[in-house]
Amino acid sequence: MILSSVVLQPLWESGCRVDFLTLKPFHQLFQEDYRLSRVIGVDRNQLKGLGDIVRFAKTLGKYDYVLDLHKNLRSFIMSIFIDGKVFRYKKNSIKRRFGRLSREFNIVRAYLKPLEKLNIKDLEKYRPKLVLSEKEVKKFEKELPKRFISIGTGARYKNKVYPLYHKVAEILVKQDYNIVLVGSDRDKEMDRGSYSKGILDLRGKLSIRESLAVISKGVLTISNDSAVAHMSRAVGVPVLMVYGATHPYLGFSPLEDEGGYIFKNLSCQPCDIHGKGECKRGDLACLTSIAPTEIAERALSLIG
Length: 304
What we know:
The protein is of the alpha/beta class. The protein contains twelve helices and ten strands. The relative contact order is 0.13.
């Protein structure tokens, strides 16, 4: 959802009036966005059955174009019943599930591709972007340390969670960088590391938009394959992604000018497109074979 924001700038610059439809509570991500005429947040429970989806779609009114950037069953059905010409992005679902993609595939480029049908040019230059107000950005200025690196320690599934971020933090602190931990309460619960006293732990203390504001003030973000990585991209802060059970060729890795990633490329990777289930090897070597020094060194190289 965060990465789909890449289409908003070219649409706005081309003079389109855009409404953005998404599930609650994630509509909050787009609430300050000057490029949008309307943000439509819908509760998942309102779209449980086919009838619910059709009825809701018919309430949205008439559009010239409908851009389906989810392309699951629900959005597919909904787009049929919204009055407007439908464009869908090429999801490559089968190839992704069977690991048949190359490094050339990236979700950001895939989201931009349908805009060619609207005769919008120079699409390669656009990147995901979420808009923060000046007030939001300044809110935490006094509380945040100087020259800090944000670390997103969590992920939805444990097979994507690097277990030694506390060691990475130790190394970076010795290099005179401050560390701020961002994420949810659950991220904090999943993290077994013990952090030194001077590290600022904001996990579970911030809203989605507050997290964006904090990340925007850092010099770099280090994150698993999770939302924090994409939040960093969307506020223009370089990110270093650490891959475990998933794979950068699934399309969610940062583009070259957005940062980089660390990936061991074991024969069992990806074990699952989303990183669910148990490790088939039993040792999570995709993560445990990555040394904290490797992450720290790569992070410092990205800061330059």
